[in-house]
Amino acid sequence: MLFHVRMDVRLPADLDPRERDEIVAREKAYSQDLQRAGKWPHIWRVVGEYANFSIFDVESNDELHRILSGLPLFSYMEIQVTPLAVHPSDIKAEGS
Amino acid sequence: MLFHVRMDVRLPADLDPRERDEIVAREKAYSQDLQRAGKWPHIWRVVGEYANFSIFDVESNDELHRILSGLPLFSYMEIQVTPLAVHPSDIKAEGS
Amino acid sequence: MLFHVRMDVRLPADLDPRERDEIVAREKAYSQDLQRAGKWPHIWRVVGEYANFSIFDVESNDELHRILSGLPLFSYMEIQVTPLAVHPSDIKAEGS
Amino acid sequence: MLFHVRMDVRLPADLDPRERDEIVAREKAYSQDLQRAGKWPHIWRVVGEYANFSIFDVESNDELHRILSGLPLFSYMEIQVTPLAVHPSDIKAEGS
Amino acid sequence: MLFHVRMDVRLPADLDPRERDEIVAREKAYSQDLQRAGKWPHIWRVVGEYANFSIFDVESNDELHRILSGLPLFSYMEIQVTPLAVHPSDIKAEGS
Amino acid sequence: MLFHVRMDVRLPADLDPRERDEIVAREKAYSQDLQRAGKWPHIWRVVGEYANFSIFDVESNDELHRILSGLPLFSYMEIQVTPLAVHPSDIKAEGS
Amino acid sequence: MLFHVRMDVRLPADLDPRERDEIVAREKAYSQDLQRAGKWPHIWRVVGEYANFSIFDVESNDELHRILSGLPLFSYMEIQVTPLAVHPSDIKAEGS
Amino acid sequence: MLFHVRMDVRLPADLDPRERDEIVAREKAYSQDLQRAGKWPHIWRVVGEYANFSIFDVESNDELHRILSGLPLFSYMEIQVTPLAVHPSDIKAEGS
Amino acid sequence: MLFHVRMDVRLPADLDPRERDEIVAREKAYSQDLQRAGKWPHIWRVVGEYANFSIFDVESNDELHRILSGLPLFSYMEIQVTPLAVHPSDIKAEGS
Amino acid sequence: MLFHVRMDVRLPADLDPRERDEIVAREKAYSQDLQRAGKWPHIWRVVGEYANFSIFDVESNDELHRILSGLPLFSYMEIQVTPLAVHPSDIKAEGS
């Protein structure tokens, strides 16, 4: 089941640079584990912004919330979730 | 080069049903040709709305505008384009 | 899997009253069938507005989109869908 | 009498973690007491956000304000209240 | 129980003037009946707009919705309802 | 001359509790003096928010600004003023 | 007593050109009468828009509403009124 | 003197195609005359929208309003004007 | 050449009172010098807000930016500039 | 390939003045290097705001993101990117 997610990161200006590097590194590892597990099939940077558009592929709303609220940067993010359905023009869904 | 596009369709209430069916069929064919050509790799329906999130893969801004303004439903759509870049956490981009 | 849905109905001022009554009656029957089937457990009127807040309980995003896009009033509605998860303070979810 | 409430929690980034845990624990107890008393029949987490949609069942506007302004997290919340009425399609209200 | 209501009237430009006068006259009679009954204690014109701020005093949310949805101009209005509680500084509420 | 005013209070999270109590007490006294003088005939709490809707009855715009900018909480408030006129359906204004 | 008013004119696309010219001519005469009477001391065109910023000098909110609701273009306008007070830095108000 | 202008065109769905072609052709000629005269040095299409960003170089606000309100598509446009100044980092302005 | 400017002042809550008084005094002197020079012909207080509407009369966009960015309170302000043109109904512009 | 970019700078009120001067100087040098390289052909100040409108000419979305995220002021900016296409009325594009 697919979800479209926009994440905007707002780090406080006075965050300690080492703490910042450490949390961003953990965020990257967390994201890549989920990508490898097939839960987070797409992540794109929004040009010019500290933000991304992502696609998640999960079993349930609860699983998606566990994943998102577990993001190391969660408390610094504004997140907007949109549920997706198959589009009738999608050639990958033909015959399904 | 990737772009994120949101399209909202607003068909007038008094549109003739046959004209509507005909234009929607042309829209589908137009979209599927571009999907097969690799220009429109993803299209998802926004749940509960006559809208979609799409990803386009084109050579230039001008090519994207030619594609979008050529949509049979173009004059009935509100379209919002966001340029995308590679995300540093994307495992598909590692090593690139 | 639960979803929160807000529906705002915008009927055109010049809609024929009999057509209006007929479509509203079909909407009611459609809604009540889904309520009886357990798919639409809650529906409330927003005071002073031709709008409702509803809760849907479905198997997937695709099922929800089929239900919503099948509403007799769908083409006259603005619909906003929000996925819901279990709240950690919910006493009904304790021990689950 | 039913009310729809959306609560968004905005904890300051520099809140002491123990103080945070203590206030969140008090919030949970406060909410569960009201749930058991039938005043707060539903609470759902908004996926991906530190927010909830809730339904309250109270005797009056004043009772609702006392409950909401007494929330341990009240001063950190943005709250939006919408009064609800019986929906004419609600099967639970038939014959009432 | 008090509610604050803002009503914005949007009459279609092509409404027949006699129909307009007739519906506005019915709206006035409907409003004045409720004012005399104590249900609609205040109504003020917003300067420069075809809009009003009103205060309603009703037994329940359902009663308020019946009153508002019964307004002759209801289908031409945008209505926004806000529940009110006693303010702790209100001298009229002292000792209550 | 009547004005509709919405006031939203935003106290900083780190305000000293005693300072907070003192300023709120001064605000209450200030408001009640104006209520007794007939300048501030109505004040209602917005349910669930640290906000009020008020009606002021003053001689001029300048008098209203002096009153509002003199509020002890003024520097912590967002204030929105709307001038009011007699509504043609108001039974209290009949014959005036 | 001064008020700041923004007026945006939205003429329907299918308005008869002669009717349009006639109503715009009446609007101009109405405005110039009020300018000569000192009630409407300033009117400026917003560059690139069918809109104006105006300053009115009236005795009361009711007088302002009578003037604005009497504008020949009133039913085609969106109007926003802001009450003005003397600014403490205004050299014209020094010593007053 | 430079101004940044965004123009969004909203043609009515029922506009006669020949009338549409004729007005668009006049718009193009009007624009190109001003480009050749140096008054309209830049015009870019916003990708995916029937809109443009333009730069105008004029003597005064009044000249800009005359140009914009004379656009053949003016009554179908939403226009937003932003005055521009020399940027202190602009290498073309160095030494000026 | 006239410009309409709205300025909203947002002073930080922890600004030293003496620093505040000093900067506000400088702002007043700066404004009054420009008023006397005819560059800033009007300034009005927005009732209930720490904001003003002003009219500037300058030679160019660059002159206006120099004036506004030189305001002692500039870094604490949100400023919105709108270029103005002569209104065709303005009696002061007749015959010009 | 052209992009329209709006940048709004929000420097924290408590930024050390020397640090501020140093970062602004680096920003200027960075911008001018890109202007000389033809990557950043236009930059204009928005009158009255600490903001600019810019045009970038780059090979790809990724190049644009590298440039923007490398701005010394990047973490203090809100940036909005709009892709541009050739406008059919642009005389510079005729025959291309």
TrEMBL record, chains A, B, C, D, E, F, G, H, I, J:
**UniProt keyword annotations, A-Z:** Aromatic hydrocarbons catabolism, Isomerase
E.C. number:
5.3.3.4
Question: Which reactions does this protein catalyse?
Answer: (S)-muconolactone = (4,5-dihydro-5-oxofuran-2-yl)-acetate
Q: The organism sits in which domain of life?
A: Bacteria
Specify the pathway. Answer: Aromatic compound metabolism; beta-ketoadipate pathway; 5-oxo-4,5-dihydro-2-furylacetate from catechol: step 3/3
- Residues annotated as domain Muconolactone isomerase: 1-90
According to the record's subunit comment, the protein's assembly and interactions are:
Homodecamer.
Q: Which family does it belong to?
A: Belongs to the muconolactone Delta-isomerase family.
In Swiss-Prot or TrEMBL terms, this protein is called: Muconolactone Delta-isomerase
